[in-house]
Here is the input.
Amino acid sequence: MVDARPVGFAVTEGVAVIRIANPPVNALSAPVRAGLSEAIAQASADPAVRAIVIAAEGRTFIAGADISEFGKTPVPPTLPQVIATLDACPKPIVAAIGGAALGGGLEVALACHARVASPNAKLGLPEVKLGLVPGAGGTQRLPRLIGAAQALPLMAEGTAINAAEALRLGILDAMAEGDLLAAARQHVLALAEAGDPLPRLRDRWDRLGPREAFEAAAAAVLKRAADHPAAAACVDCVRAAFEKSFEEALTFERETFLRLMQDERSKALRHVFFAERATAQIPGQPRDTQPRRIEHAAVVGAGTMGGGIAMVFANAGIPVTLIETHQEALGRGLERVAGTYAISVQRGSLAPEERDRRLARIEGRVGLEAAATADVVVEAVFEDLELKREIFGSLDRIAKPGALLASNTSYLDIDAIAQATARPGDVLGMHFFSPANVMKLLEVVRGAATTSEALATAVELGKRLGKVPVVVGSCHGFVGNRMLARRSAQAERLLLEGASPEEVDAALVAFGFRMGPFAMIDLAGLDIGWRTRKATGKTAPVADALCEAGRLGQKAGRGYYDYAGGARQGTPDPAVQQLIERISAQLGIPRRAIGREEITERLIFPMIDEGARILEEGIAARPGDIDVVWLNGYSWPAWRGGPMYYGATLGAAHVAQRLAAYAERSDDESLRPSAALSRLAREGLGFEALARTAA
Ligand code: T1G
Here is the structure.
């Protein structure tokens, strides 16, 4: 009978096993910290106990501090207090690490005298991903175990390493091939019998390694951490190991941790952590819905997207049939896939034998009949509704019963596609983002008839493919592209009113994006948007004029910018400025100098307004889902939390007021705040209020 408390205690043959059981990931919540502290004191005082093992139930060791407690009043004992108890224990303690030992979980293990792990263990200090530094001794103990120069990058990047690497580095003392607990007991008894003074990391100043090596590692971190205060703070904490006593350095680390805890970036990153996990809860879905088993996939269309999607399945170990209508198109598609893998092999990011295994999982076939045995079929053909309806009509006849039928369409009506079949319940959108084998976001688009089981299958499959699946409703552009359209419209409008492409791009880069809208369009190619606008009867005067002038972007050597000599970095082109000014004049739009604040707000605030409409229409279930879409599909800066999180920090009233002012100033009705946003502003409500109203 497992003790109801989150920490169990049992003594057998002189070894006290302290067992943490706090599902799902043994986070160090207040009850766990209290239980751990009591158990260590009990074991220390018990004369029958010669040695101690700390173990954990379930699939992880300890996933770290309980992030849901952050920002609340700390409940003693704090983790540093628990770790101080461990550190003061007069009896040998070994950590038995099965699964993940992350953050505070690794810090607990580092305070033990030794660490034994199973081969599947993962160890790391990921606090920096939450905008924090390790706050319970990690910045002092890890450098005293493996050297400061090796420890710093691990915590500054927050990467998790596997057990083999941890053993090689010296974080682990032994690997348990079989019974982990037995191996840990054996190790700790050997420590007890040796009778030597117990190894204490606090005393291993000698293991820090050369200061110069640390400073070189620090310089490398600081070069990459330009706008990442937590990574820079890791440098300061580890440097303290060279300059302060252990206790003083621990105090410095704790002060740094608590300061960063209050930082807006950390709050945003903690929001992202939970928002990304909340997307797995599909709105209105019975939690016990069982996803179907996917063992074989088919992808229809061997173009750029189809080939990329086939790679996603192959990379996840799922055999996939890549289907085309003609052999030559299929051949081109397969060559493109092989070429993409070859680049990864050349870069050293993919071993040749793994490349071969993945390629072997991709079978090229001509004709839709090849989809007959697939458990999931992803259509990735040209963005033409009639063509897609025709394909789904055929798939309805060919695909096996229960197969998931998905379209990769980026904006077309899923219901119209589903109605081409007699099984609309099995039809949904799986909108991958280009390049499909790289981008994390997967919009799972639910049709009116899509069943819960089909949705659960697509979400489960998305996670298995290494994607971040977000369930969205069907409308033009779903969530991401629908909000992008608002930003793109304003980007074009700002050009016509007097801003230059480089001023617009610079504003978004200063906001935190890696690239501005025009550099991004030049990279992707102006013809993609041009084709969509022509198909939907829309216009964008500047973009259309550039396309008509053959300025299709980097691939054409010029777009919004000039890429003379095949340059990757575009340079402003006076011809573009003249073209813009000419169109402004033709449209009778007066030009003026536009400041950065206005540019930034006119790019970002319409997206927030569109997000409010999306919530009210029920196209997204939660504001956080919209944030996850933009973080994983459009490189929204994670330390700003996402468009809806950012909007919430400003308040709906502020956003609405600014939009109304810009609408007046620019005489642009598209800037006027929507009814949804105006209601929130009037009633002083948060964006989640809209999600509740859209049942
Ligand atoms: N605190 C609270 N809840 C957590 C949690 C945590 N540390 N980690 C996971 N969860 C929840 C998560 O929200 C989800 O809940 C469920 O557990 C399953 O998570 C002092 C201060 C361990 C690799 O950053 O990386 O220690 O949605 O879906 O895919 O220096 O969870 O089911 O309700 O991710 O199997 C540092 C974060 C904290 C590790 C497992 N630790 N967690 O992955 O499950 S800061 C981390 C993970 C710290 C100290 C500092 C992963 C995992 P729900 P999941 P998974």
Observations:
- The chain is about 50% helix and 10% strand.
- The longest strand covers residues 7-12.
